[in-house]
C-alpha cells in the first residue's frame, strides 16, 4: 500500500525506503478487499525490476515487486519503493522486532544519509549575464530618454489592446469590488487539524509502539498500553532521526532560504530550550518510557517539517494542550487514534508559550502583516533612490518571505522552485490594478532537488471536485475529512491514508508525508497511464555539411557521447538512433548482428521516408558496440565532404517519423541556415541594422513550418532540443520555434570553432555532458491550479498550452523554468491565504509514471502597503522580462522597452500616491522595490532589448529565449551580472562546503567607478564570466593566481586559471568553481585586459554607467522621477 | 411601394447578415470546444490523448482562420452597399465595426501566414476570453442589425 521515502534526486545520494508496516488494520483490510497493496504499480512496465537486486529489506517485511534499481548514473535513483505484501497481515505485525531491527537494518540509509551529490542547493548569486558577443563601436549619439508612450503594461480600459492581451495584467475590466473590508476575516483557513473530541485523550504511548503492538483496529483499551518499556522514538527514527539527519521531510536544504531572511513574520517562537521546558523533559529517545514528542524537540532547530507539526496545531483548544498527565482515561476513541493524537497534544505546547497570546498560526496574515509593519518596516522603509547610492546588498538577494504564520511558512515551497511576484496577494483585481505590479508565478518545477520525499500509494488523495493533490495547506476538519484549500470542498480521508507509513502509526492523516511537504513526488498508480510508459528514446540529428565539418563539433559531440553513453538516463529499454544530413538524409542501421553500422542515404528530400523503420532506433544495451563504432567513425566519415547545403526541414521530418511511434527526445545540431527543401530559410538580417536604434525587425518566425512541426512533435510526445553552432545568421527566430512549442531547449554557440574559439568548445563540451546526463521526464504534462477566484491567463516558457491550465511538455528537463501571469477574477474577501499547486506528471527514464507536486501558500492582503511590502523585485523583473519578450515579438521592441520603463514608473507612482502619506521630494521607493529601477535599466541594456548597441539578431533572439526559458535565478544573472573584487579574497566570512573554503566577496555595483587599476574583478554574467585585470594589478595576484610575472605577460586568450599551489589561487579557484557549481550550464571564463577583445562586452555590462546609446542609472532615475512627478 | 436600390441593399444584407450570425454562432461553439477539455483529468493527462487534442486545436484554429476573411469581407460589402445606397445612418452604425475589423486584421501578430487564432497561443486564457467576448458582442450586434435591416427594408419598400 503505501511506502514513503526520500531519495536524492541526483542519484549520488541513496534513496531509502520506508517499509511501512501494514497500514491498515484488519478491519480496514476487510473493508477494502479489492485493494491490492503494493503490487499494482506498473507491474508490467518496469523491466528493470527483474534485474535489480533486492535491496536490503527494511526490517521484517517481505519486499514487494518494486525493487529500487541501482542508480545507473548520476541520474535519479529509483524511488525507494519497497512495498511490502500485507498478506498475511498477522505475521508482519510483530511488535518487538520491527522496532529494534528497523534502525539496525543495514539497508536503512536514514541514519547515514550521504550528502547529496549533484548540484548543491545553494542560492545562486543573484546577478546576471550579458553576452560575450563582440561589440561594434556604437555609432549612436546619446538617445533621448525613453519616451513614455501610451503603451503600458496596464490595460487602459478605453483602449483595449486585444492583440497583445497577454501583456495586460487584467483582461477583464477591473471588478467593481469594493475595497476590501477591514473587518476581521474569519480564521477558517488556518489549519486546525485537531479533533476536539480528542481533547480528553490521555497521552497514549507513542504511536508506533502502540500500533505495532496493537494492530487490530478495535482492540480493547488496555491494548493502548504497550507492554514493557517502549522505545517510542524508534519508529520516529525510522523516518526522521532528528539529530543526525538533515531535515528529512524538507526537500530543500535549509540554508537556501530559511535563515538569513529579513524577519517579516512574527518573531520566532523561541529557541529549542524553551520548547523543551514545557513538556516533561524528554530524555534521550531510546528507552525512555515517557512519550516524548521526539520530532518536535529534536527537529526544531531545523526548519524542516520535523518541527513543523509543532506549529501546525497551535490552535488547539487550551484544555487539549494540557493533557500531559500520563494516565489512561477511558476514551471512546480508537486506540490508534489516541496514539495518533498524542504527539501533538504535547508538541504544540512549546509553541504556545513564547508568543504569549495567540499563536502565530492564529494570527491572521493580515494582522500579522500589520504587526510586522510596525515592528519591522524594513520592506516598506522609504528609500530615496536619488540619494542613497549603495543599494545593492553585499550578498545576493534572497527571496522575500511571505508574511505567513511561521508554521505555514516553514513548510512552504522553496522559492527557488515556486515563487510569486507578489508574496502578498491582493484581495481584489482593482487593488492589484492600483498597485500596478504584475501578478504571476515563476516556477522551476523539475529542479534537481537534493532531497525529495517520494510516496508510493495505491490511491493518491485528491480533491474530488478540483482534483487538487492533498498538500500541507489543506485543513483537516476532523480525522476523517479534509477541506481542499483550492476549491473548499470537503473530502473524505480514505482509509488507506489514515495510516502513516513514516511513523508507522494509524490515525494521523495530517502527519503523512503528503501533508508535511510542500514538494513531494508520487509514483503514480496504473490508472494514471493508459498506455505503457514510454521508454527513453534519444535521437541525434547531426548536421554534416561542409560548414559543420569545418567547425569540428562532430568530434566533440561524438567524444562526449562516447564518454557518457553509460550515463544516459534510461533503463534496459533505452533506444538511440542517429541521423545525419546535408543535402541528403543519412540513416544508420544499427541492428544487432551487423558487423558495422550501415549508412542508408535517402536523397529524396521532398518526400521523405524511412528506409528500414525497425533498425534505425535500436536498443542501446543490445547494440552498444555498434553505437560506439558509429560514434568513433562519424567524425572521419564526412571529413572530405564538400556539400554545403542543409536540408534541415526534411531531416526533422524524418526524425519525427522515426520517433513518432514512441515519443522521445530529438537533439538537433545545426550549423547553418537551412537552405534546401522544406523549411528552407533566407537570411533576413541586415548587418547594417544591428546597431539601429529603430525597431528591430524579424523577431518573429519567417515560416510556420517549424511551429507546425513542433506541434506535431508535441502531439507525439517528441521534444526537439536545438544546438545551434554557427558563425553566421541562422534565423533562430524561426528555428527556435521547433524547440519552443515542443518543450525542448535551445543552445547557441555563436562563432563556434574547434581551433579559433576554445572557450566555446569547452562550454559546448560541458553543456553537452550536462545535457546527456541530466535527468529527463518524458510525456509530461504540467497543470497549475490556484485557489478559486484566481485565474491563470498567460504562460511563458517552452511548451504547448493544451488547455487553459494544462501545459503539454513532451520532455521536461531540470533546467527549464516557467512563468505564468494571473488575474484575480473573484474577490478573495474572506480568505486569508491562497494556494497554488503545480503538478507535473511525467514518465521517468526508468519507465515510471511519477507526479511531482509543488504547493505554494501565500497570504491575502487588502491594503496597498501590504502589497508593496510583499513585492519580490527579482520575480517581478523576471516576469516583466518574459512579458517584454512577448511584446517585442507581437508589437515591437520599442513598445516593449517603453512598457518596461512604464512598469517602473507606474508602480513607483502608485506607491507614492497611495501608500506614502508624507510627500517628500526625490524618487521614493519602498525598500523592497529599491532595486526595481536598476533591474529595469539592466533589462533595457540587456542583449534582448538594447538598442543602439550592435547586437546580432540571433544573439538577441537567443537572449530572449533565455529570458523566457531560464529559471529565475539564472535569468537574473543574465539581467544583472554580479561583480566581485577578487584580488583580495580572504577567508573571512567564507562558506565552508565539504571541506572547501569558499570566500564570499561582496557584490559591487556595476559601474566603472568600482573598478580600480590596482585590483582584479570577476564579473559573473551567467553564461560567461569575465576576469578583469587592472593595469597596475597587485603583482602578488598576478603571480600567485595567474602565474604570470607581470601585467604585460597576461596572455590574451586565457580561459582558465592555472592550478597553482598557493592560497590565493586556491581561494580564487574555489570561488569560481563554487559559482559554476550553482548552475546547470557551464559559464566560460575570460581573462581580460584593457586591450582585450572582450573588453567591450565586459564594459557593456556596466549597467549603471552611461553609454553612447543609453542612460546611466542616475539619469534613468531622474527620468523616472520626472515622469512620476508629472 | 418602391423597390429602390436601398431596399435591395437591405434585402441582400438581410440574407448575408443571417450568414454572419451563423458564422458567429459557429465561432462561439468553437471557442467553447477549445475551452472545455476532457473533464477527467487523468484522461486529460494521458499521453495518447495529446495527439488527438492537439490535432483538434489545430483543426479548430484552421477553421476559425478560414472564416475570418469571409466574415470581414461580407461586412465590408455591407458598408460599401450602404454607402452606395446613401443609407448614411446605417453606414454610421456599421463604421465602428468596420474599423475594428480593419484594425484586427492588420494589427495581428506579424507571424508569417498566421492570421489570428494561432494554435499555440489561443489556449492562453486571456486570449480565449477575449475571443469569446468578441464573438458574443458580435452576435448581439449582428442580431440587432438583422432586425434593423428588416425594419429598414420594410420601411424602404413601403415608403414613397
UniProtKB/TrEMBL annotation, chain A:
Q: Could you provide one GO biological process annotation from this protein's UniProt record?
A: intracellular protein transport
Q: Where is the Sec23/Sec24 helical domain?
A: 872-972
Query: Which keywords does the record carry?
Result: Cytoplasm, Cytoplasmic vesicle, Endoplasmic reticulum, ER-Golgi transport, Membrane, Metal-binding, Protein transport, Transport, Zinc
Q: Where is the Zinc finger Sec23/Sec24-type domain?
A: 460-496
Localization annotation: Cytoplasm, Cytosol; Cytoplasmic vesicle, COPII-coated vesicle membrane; Endoplasmic reticulum membrane
Q: Which domain of life is it from?
A: Eukaryota
Q: Name the Pfam families on file.
A: Gelsolin, Sec23_BS, Sec23_helical, Sec23_trunk, zf-Sec23_Sec24
**How does it sit in the bilayer?**
Peripheral membrane protein
Q: What is its main location?
A: cytoplasm
Which residues does the UniProt record annotate as the domain Gelsolin-like? 999-1072
Q: Does the keyword S-adenosyl-L-methionine apply?
A: no
Q: Where is the composition biased (Pro residues)?
A: 53-71, 131-147, 264-295
Extract the ranges annotated as region (Disordered). Answer: 1-335
- Family as reported in the entry's similarity comment: Belongs to the SEC23/SEC24 family. SEC24 subfamily.
UniProt-recorded name of the protein: SEC24 homolog A, COPII coat complex component
Q: Which organism is it from?
A: Dicentrarchus labrax
From TrEMBL, chain B:
Q: Which InterPro entries match?
A: Cornichon, Cornichon_conserved
**Main site of residence?**
membrane
Q: Which UniProt keywords apply?
A: Membrane, Transmembrane, Transmembrane helix
Q: Name one GO cellular component term.
A: membrane
Subcellular locations according to the entry: Membrane
Transmembrane feature ranges: 7-29, 72-99, 139-158
Per the record, membrane topology reads:
Multi-pass membrane protein
In terms of PANTHER family, this protein maps to: CORNICHON-RELATED
Q: Which family does it belong to?
A: Belongs to the cornichon family.
Q: What protein is this chain from?
A: Protein cornichon homolog 2
Q: Which organism is it from?
A: Coilia grayii (Gray's grenadier anchovy)
Amino acid at each position: 500500500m503505501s511506502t514513503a521515502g526520500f531519495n536524492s534526486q541526483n542519484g549520488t545520494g541513496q534513496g531509502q525506503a520506508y517499509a511501512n508496516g501494514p497500514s491498515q488494520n484488519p478491519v480496514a483490510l476487510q473493508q477494502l478487499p479489492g485493494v491490492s497493496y503494493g503490487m499494482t504499480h506498473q507491474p508490467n512496465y518496469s523491466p528493470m525490476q527483474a534485474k535489480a537486486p533486492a535491496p536490503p529489506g527494511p526490517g521484517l517485511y517481505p519486499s514487494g515487486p518494486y525493487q529500487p534499481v541501482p542508480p545507473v548514473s548520476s541520474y535519479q535513483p529509483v524511488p525507494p519503493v519497497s512495498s511490502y505484501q500485507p498478506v498475511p497481515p498477522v505475521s508482519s505485525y510483530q511488535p518487538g522486532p520491527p522496532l529494534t531491527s528497523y534502525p539496525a537494518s543495514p539497508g536503512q540509509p536514514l541514519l547515514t544519509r550521504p550528502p547529496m551529490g549533484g548540484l548543491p542547493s545553494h542560492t545562486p548569486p543573484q546577478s546576471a549575464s550579458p553576452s560575450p558577443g563582440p561589440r561594434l563601436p556604437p555609432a549612436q549619439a546619446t538617445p533621448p530618454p525613453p519616451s513614455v508612450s501610451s503603451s503600458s503594461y496596464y490595460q487602459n480600459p478605453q483602449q483595449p489592446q486585444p492583440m497583445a492581451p497577454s501583456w495586460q495584467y487584467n483582461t477583464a475590466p477591473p471588478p467593481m469590488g469594493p475595497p476590501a473590508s477591514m473587518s476581521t476575516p474569519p480564521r477558517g483557513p488556518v489549519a486546525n487539524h485537531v479533533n476536539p473530541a480528542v481533547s480528553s485523550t490521555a497521552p497514549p504511548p507513542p504511536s508506533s509502539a502502540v500500533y505495532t503492538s496493537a494492530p487490530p483496529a478495535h482492540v480493547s483499551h488496555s491494548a493502548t498500553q504497550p507492554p514493557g518499556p517502549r522505545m517510542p522514538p524508534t519508529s520516529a527514527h525510522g523516518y526522521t532521526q532528528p539529530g543526525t539527519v538533515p531535515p528529512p521531510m524538507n526537500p530543500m536544504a535549509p540554508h537556501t532560504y530559511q535563515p538569513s531572511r529579513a524577519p517579516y513574520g512574527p518573531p520566532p517562537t523561541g529557541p529549542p530550550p524553551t520548547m523543551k521546558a514545557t513538556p516533561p523533559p524528554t530524555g534521550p529517545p531510546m528507552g525512555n518510557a515517557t512519550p516524548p514528542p521526539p520530532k518536535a524537540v529534536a527537529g526544531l532547530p531545523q526548519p524542516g517539517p520535523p518541527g513543523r507539526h509543532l506549529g501546525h496545531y497551535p490552535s488547539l483548544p487550551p484544555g487539549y494542550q494540557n493533557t500531559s498527565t500520563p494516565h489512561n482515561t477511558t476514551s471512546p476513541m480508537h486506540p490508534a487514534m489516541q496514539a495518533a493524537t498524542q504527539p501533538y497534544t504535547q508538541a504544540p505546547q512549546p509553541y504556545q508559550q513564547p508568543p504569549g497570546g495567540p499563536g502565530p498560526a492564529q494570527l491572521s496574515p493580515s494582522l500579522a502583516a500589520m504587526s510586522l509593519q510596525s515592528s519591522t518596516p524594513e520592506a516598506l522603509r522609504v528609500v530615496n533612490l536619488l540619494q542613497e547610492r549603495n543599494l545593492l546588498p553585499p550578498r545576493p538577494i534572497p527571496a522575500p518571505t511571505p508574511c505567513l504564520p511561521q508554521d505555514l511558512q516553514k513548510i512552504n515551497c522553496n522559492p527557488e522552485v515556486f515563487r510569486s511576484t507578489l508574496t502578498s496577494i491582493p484581495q481584489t483585481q482593482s487593488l492589484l490594478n492600483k498597485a500596478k505590479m504584475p501578478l504571476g508565478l515563476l516556477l522551476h518545477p523539475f529542479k534537481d532537488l537534493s532531497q525529495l520525499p517520494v510516496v508510493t500509494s495505491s490511491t493518491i488523495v485528491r480533491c474530488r471536485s478540483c482534483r487538487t493533490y492533498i498538500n500541507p495547506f489543506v485543513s483537516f476538519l476532523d480525522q476523517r475529512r479534509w477541506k481542499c484549500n483550492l476549491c473548499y470542498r470537503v473530502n473524505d480521508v480514505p482509509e488507506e491514508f489514515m495510516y502513516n507509513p513514516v511513523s508507522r502509526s494509524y490515525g494521523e492523516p495530517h502527519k503523512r508525508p503528503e501533508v508535511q511537504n510542500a514538494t513531494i513526488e508520487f509514483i503514480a498508480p496504473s490508472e494514471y497511464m493508459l498506455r505503457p510508459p514510454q521508454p527513453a528514446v534519444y535521437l541525434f540529428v547531426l548536421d554534416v555539411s561542409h560548414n559543420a565539418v569545418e567547425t569540428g563539433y562532430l568530434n566533440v559531440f561524438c567524444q562526449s557521447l562516447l564518454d557518457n553513453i553509460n550515463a544516459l538516463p534510461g533503463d534496459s529499454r533505452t533506444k538511440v538512433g542517429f541521423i545525419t544530413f546535408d543535402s541528403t538524409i543519412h540513416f544508420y542501421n544499427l541492428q544487432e548482428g551487423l558487423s558495422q553500422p550501415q549508412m542508408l542515404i535517402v536523397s529524396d528530400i521532398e518526400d521523405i521516408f524511412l528506409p528500414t523503420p525497425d533498425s534505425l532506433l535500436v536498443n542501446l544495451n543490445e547494440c552498444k558496440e555498434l553505437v560506439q563504432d558509429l560514434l568513433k567513425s562519424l567524425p572521419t566519415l564526412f571529413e572530405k565532404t564538400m556539400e554545403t547545403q542543409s536540408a534541415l526541414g526534411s531531416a526533422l521530418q524524418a526524425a519525427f517519423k522515426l520517433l513518432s511511434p514512441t515519443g522521445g527526445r530529438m537533439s538537433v545540431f545545426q550549423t547553418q541556415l537551412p537552405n534546401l527543401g522544406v523549411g528552407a530559410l533566407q537570411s533576413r538580417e541586415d548587418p547594417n541594422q544591428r546597431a539601429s536604434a529603430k525597431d528591430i525587425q524579424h523577431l518573429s518566425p519567417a515560416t510556420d513550418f517549424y511551429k507546425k512541426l513542433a506541434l506535431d512533435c508535441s502531439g507525439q510526445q517528441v521534444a526537439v532540443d536545438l544546438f545551434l553552432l554557427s558563425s553566421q545568421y541562422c534565423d533562430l527566430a524561426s528555428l527556435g520555434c521547433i524547440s519552443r512549442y515542443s518543450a525542448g531547449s535551445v543552445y547557441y554557440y555563436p562563432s563556434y570553432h574547434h581551433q579559433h574559439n576554445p572557450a566555446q568548445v569547452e562550454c559546448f563540451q560541458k553543456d553537452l555532458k550536462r545535457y546527456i546526463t541530466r535527468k529527463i521526464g518524458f510525456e509530461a504534462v504540467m497543470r497549475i491550479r490556484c485557489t478559486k477566484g484566481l485565474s491563470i491567463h498567460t504562460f511563458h516558457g517552452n511548451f504547448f498550452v493544451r488547455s487553459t491550465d494544462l501545459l503539454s511538455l513532451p520532455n521536461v528537463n531540470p533546467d527549464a523554468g516557467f512563468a505564468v501571469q494571473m488575474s484575480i477574477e473573484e474577490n478573495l474577501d474572506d480568505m486569508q491565504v491562497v494556494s497554488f499547486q503545480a503538478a507535473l506528471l511525467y514518465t521517468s527514464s526508468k519507465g515510471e509514471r511519477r507526479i511531482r507536486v509543488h504547493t505554494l501558500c501565500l497570504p491575502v492582503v487588502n491594503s496597498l502597503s501590504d502589497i508593496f511590502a510583499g513585492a519580490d523585485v527579482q520575480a517581478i523583473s523576471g516576469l516583466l522580462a518574459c512579458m517584454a519578450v512577448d511584446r517585442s515579438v507581437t508589437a515591437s521592441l520599442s513598445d516593449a522597452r517603453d512598457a518596461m520603463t512604464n512598469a517602473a514608473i507606474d508602480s513607483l507612482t502608485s506607491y507614492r500616491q497611495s501608500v506614502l502619506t508624507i510627500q517628500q521630494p526625490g524618487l521614493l521607493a519602498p525598500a523592497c522595490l529599491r532595486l526595481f529601477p536598476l533591474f529595469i535599466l539592466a533589462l533595457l541594456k540587456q542583449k534582448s532589448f538594447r538598442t543602439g548597441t550592435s547586437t546580432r539578431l540571433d544573439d538577441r533572439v537567443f537572449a530572449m529565449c533565455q529570458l523566457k526559458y531560464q529559471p529565475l535565478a539564472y535569468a537574473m544573472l543574465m539581467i544583472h551580472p554580479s561583480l566581485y573584487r577578487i584580488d583580495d579574497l580572504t577567508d573571512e566570512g567564507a562558506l565552508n562546503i565539504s571541506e572547501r573554503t569558499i570566500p564570499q566577496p561582496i557584490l559591487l555595483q556595476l559601474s566603472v567607478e568600482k573598478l580600480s587599476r590596482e585590483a582584479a574583478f570577476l564579473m559573473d554574467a551567467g553564461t560567461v564570466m569575465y576576469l578583469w585585470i587592472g593595469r597596475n594589478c597587485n603583482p602578488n595576484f598576478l603571480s600567485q593566481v595567474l602565474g604570470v610575472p607581470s601585467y604585460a605577460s597576461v596572455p590574451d586568450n586565457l580561459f582558465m586559471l592555472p592550478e597553482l599551489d598557493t592560497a590565493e589561487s586556491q581561494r580564487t579557484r574555489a570561488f569560481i568553481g563554487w559559482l559554476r557549481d550553482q548552475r546547470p550550464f557551464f559559464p566560460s571564463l575570460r581573462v581580460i585586459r584593457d586591450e582585450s577583445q572582450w573588453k567591450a562586452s565586459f564594459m557593456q555590462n556596466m549597467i549603471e554607467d552611461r553609454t553612447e546609446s543609453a542612460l546611466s542609472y542616475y539619469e534613468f532615475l531622474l527620468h523616472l522621477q520626472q515622469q512620476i512627478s508629472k | 411601394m418602391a423597390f429602390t436600390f436601398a431596399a435591395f441593399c437591405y434585402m441582400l444584407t438581410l440574407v448575408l447578415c443571417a450568414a454572419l450570425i451563423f458564422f458567429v454562432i459557429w465561432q462561439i461553439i468553437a471557442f467553447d470546444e477549445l475551452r472545455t477539455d476532457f473533464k477527467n483529468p487523468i484522461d486529460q493527462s494521458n499521453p495518447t490523448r495529446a495527439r488527438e487534442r492537439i490535432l483538434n486545436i489545430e483543426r479548430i484554429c484552421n477553421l476559425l482562420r478560414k472564416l475570418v476573411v469571409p466574415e470581414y469581407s461580407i461586412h465590408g460589402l455591407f458598408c460599401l452597399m450602404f454607402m452606395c445606397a446613401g443609407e448614411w445612418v446605417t453606414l454610421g452604425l456599421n463604421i465602428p465595426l468596420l474599423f475594428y475589423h480593419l484594425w484586427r486584421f492588420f494589427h495581428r501578430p506579424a507571424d508569417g501566414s498566421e492570421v489570428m487564432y494561432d494554435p499555440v497561443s489561443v489556449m492562453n486564457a486571456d486570449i480565449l476570453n477575449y475571443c469569446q467576448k468578441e464573438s458574443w458582442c458580435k452576435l448581439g450586434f449582428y442580431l440587432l442589425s438583422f432586425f434593423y435591416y428588416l425594419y429598414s427594408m420594410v420601411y424602404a419598400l413601403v415608403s414613397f
